[in-house]
Amino acid sequence: MFKYKDGFKRLCFALTWKGHTLRKMHEDYLRISIKDINNNDLTKAVYVLNGVLEIGLKLYDEYSLGMGSTYYLLCCAYFGKGEYERALEYSRKGLEIHLRMFSGKGYSVSVGYNNMGLMYSALKDYESALEYYDKSLNISQKMLFKERDFIASTYYNIAELYREKSDYKNALKYYIKSMKTRKKPFKSDYGFRISMYSKIGHMFGCMGDEKKAMEYFEWSISKCKRKYGPESDEMADVYERMADMYYINGVYGKALYYCRLALSIEKSIHGSNNLLTSRLYKRAAEICIAWQDYGQTLKYGIKAYRAITRFAGRGVHADETRSVIYDAYINFGMPKALFSDWLAGECLRINRQLPPKPVGKHHRGRNARNAAYQGDGNAVTRL
């Protein structure tokens, strides 16, 4: 993580002395920012992109394609961080440039409308989101060389919107449309097929048809093991959707079991401290607090919060995780006034790989604290 606000200016000054032109620097740092976004190091990506934006304003007109691309990348980075209002602002700026350059037509305009739909969907403004998705589809479906994969991704985004609204019937409808629209022959595209079958299974499960859901999930698991092996991102995705299905249906034991399976796979592939595993830690914490297992909620919640704040900063995801941790903390009878200091201390101890220590005068021993973490309700009286 960068520490200096003017660090980018210092770097630009140093590189200029070494003979780098501003245009070359602009291209290089655009590539770096894309790599950072792909690696989910979003805090660094935002930092670099703000510097790229500053250079771009010196090189190009305010309404140039270079500036439009930078705004789209900033939109992606802030979206990943959970700062949806700022993501919407940059998405709108990028769209304005592409509308001006291409007279309201073309692939990049369609992408801009799709991005706006994603932003409004994240902000729970579903009517506006659907309006922008329709605009995106109207353009992409009229293009001479139809971008079928892009149209399929727009249908997928609409399906995700309906899933967020708990309208599982319409979500299922658009998942199937997305599946049928994809350009690559569906039977040969195993990765996409596995993903869509697990999504369809998820929808059937959420609608209460667990038998049909398991048929799709079992097919996905068997194909996943054959194609990618027992430990892969694709397998973790299937287990995560199974966990989500059981969580929605209130079967918390099975939900936690499958969530832990997904988490163990992602940890073995990517390690324990990144945004991919933080999502699963957060889901495990949500399952545990619904199950009233406050000790496990704190365990998973703190790990999620540490990774989210490190790689994505303080956004919606961090606030949601903090809220889950706070609920578990209060249910242990711990003092409200010490919560912020306690949470900061726990994150620091995990970073240093130290055992948990009591915090505040009400916490009288590590043994009682650990017993409380294990779910011993009587231990709270000893804290």
Q: Could you describe the 3D structure shown?
A:
The chain has 18 helices and no strands. The protein has helices spanning 7-17, 22-38, 42-59, 65-81, 84-102, 107-122, 126-142, 148-164, 168-181, 190-206, 210-228, 233-248, 252-270, 275-290, 294-311, 316-331, 339-352, 366-373. The chain is mainly alpha-helical and 383 residues long. The two termini are 37 Å apart. Helix content is 75%, strand content 0%.
List the keywords.
383 residues, disordered N terminus, 18 helices, mainly alpha, single chain, disordered C terminus
Query: How many DSSP H or I helices?
Result: 18
Strand content: under 5%
The main sheet comes to: none
Mean pLDDT: 82
**Would you identify the regions where 5 or more consecutive residues have pLDDT less than 50?**
1-5, 13-19, 354-383
Structural class: mainly alpha
Shape: globular
Oligomer: single chain
Distance between the termini: 37 Å
Write the layout of secondary structure elements.
Layout: H1 7-17, H2 22-38, H3 42-59, H4 65-81, H5 84-102, H6 107-122, H7 126-142, H8 148-164, H9 168-181, H10 190-206, H11 210-228, H12 233-248, H13 252-270, H14 275-290, H15 294-311, H16 316-331, H17 339-352, H18 366-373
Helix pairs in contact: 2-3, 2-4, 3-4, 4-5, 5-6, 6-7, 6-8, 7-8, 8-9, 9-10, 10-11, 10-12, 11-12, 12-13, 13-14, 14-15, 14-16, 15-16, 15-17
